[in-house]
Every structure is written in structure tokens, then in C-alpha cells.
Amino acid sequence: MSRDIKLLHPELQKIIPRFLEDCKKNGLIVKITDTLRDEATQNDLYAQGREEEGNIVTWVKYPFSSHNWGIAFDFCRDDGKGAFNDSDNFFYKVGQIGKKYGLEWGGDWRPNSDKPHLEYLKYGDAKKLYNKYKTLDNFKKTWGKDKYMFVDRKFKTRDKIETFKVINEEGENYISIRDIANLLNLKVSYENNTKITILEMIENKIDLYLDTKEIKISSINSDGYNFVKLRELCEALGYNIYFENNKIKIKNNN
Fold this sequence. Notes:
Helix content: 25-40%
Number of helices: 7
Distance between the termini: 89 Å
Radius of gyration: 28 Å
Largest sheet: 4 strands, antiparallel
Order of helices and strands: HEHEHEEHHEEEHEEEEEHEE
Number of strands: 14
Strand content: 25-35%
């Protein structure tokens, strides 16, 4: 059993210091207790609570733990209050911070919860990695090659909630421009000659009645309010509108 994070996948190595610093800022002092496990260590742990004395600490033999593939680590608290004291929901709080960085928290597992455990599933779980690579050495040959991890994230505006797939890279979320435009009710276009992406509010047509006459006016809805196009409204009311000396001027046609 090792505590050396340098044995883990290089992408996870980059995440851990930021994760630990984030925990510290939130008053959570975390210590890494277990990273990469070899075959003997994994199988000895599996025997614990079964063939050997002690409590059960793992549910799988080698190579079906994420620890066997360099994509997981265990942790405890390191603030002098007891390594596994969870009276203040310490492990839940740490788990939520881990999830911000694209990690899966073992405390969410059912029925076998594992609160002091976090793992990096960008490339799949242990079973998937075994089926694809067979050995850790084969998996290591792919380390350092770019591949982005997509996760589902919910985004909320005042009037709607949407779920989009975003790229999670070292704890930061990257969303498609078209998705954010859809969320904010924007129209997105691209000018080939200037290489500029343009975001514009989407105009709708609303029905207005002037006395008994029905007219359609362009409008934009923001925060539940309709903002109508001033020029169209003035023309419908029989006014001229023009811009002069940095002022909008409206003049009666009559």
C-alpha cells in the first residue's frame, strides 16, 4: 500500500493538490492514506475480514479495484480530531469538493458506501480498464495522451433548468457555446470573414392591439419581461424615431 500520489495517473496527480487546497480553504484538513495497490496488497486487503482477522475494507480482488489502475486514492482527516471521526459530516464535505474536480465519491455508493474514497473515472472503472488494457503497464502507455472527460451538469436561469454535457478538465467546466446560448435564449452565429462568433438576443413576435387593430411587434423576453422593439412600436403608433446628437428623438407624424 502506498501514499505516493506520483504513482497515480498524471491527470489525477494534477487534480489532487488543487483538491487538497480547496479542502483546506473550507477548514477540512485531509491526508492521503492509500493510492496505488499492487496485486499482493489488494488480495491481502480482500482477505481481511474474510480469511484473515479484521474488518472488511474492500469488496474486490485484484485487478478489479480502481486502486490497481492508478485512478483512486483514500483519505482521512488530519486535524487531530480522529482520522475517521465523521461526527461533523467531514467525509461528506470532502466528497462534495472532490466531485467539483470530476472525481467520484465512494460515499455515494450503495449498498457498500466507502466514504474515505475518491476515484477518477475519465477513462472508465477498473472493470472497463481491465477489459480494454488487461494490465496496468498497457494502460500506462496511454498516459499523457489527451482525452477529455464529459460529465452532465445542470444549469439554471430564472425560468428554466437545462442539463448539458460539459468537459471537466482539472475541476473546471467547459460548456459548448451553442448550449450556453440555448440556456440564455441567445442566437449564435459565426462570421467567416472576421472569424468572430456572434451572440444575439432572440427576437420573438408578440401580438399588440391598438384599439381594435392587431399588430405584431418584435420583442425579447428577459427575466419574464417583454422588451419590444422601439422603432416598430413608434411606427405602429404613428411616430417617427431617429437618432441625433447621441439622443433618441421621437416625433409625431401629424
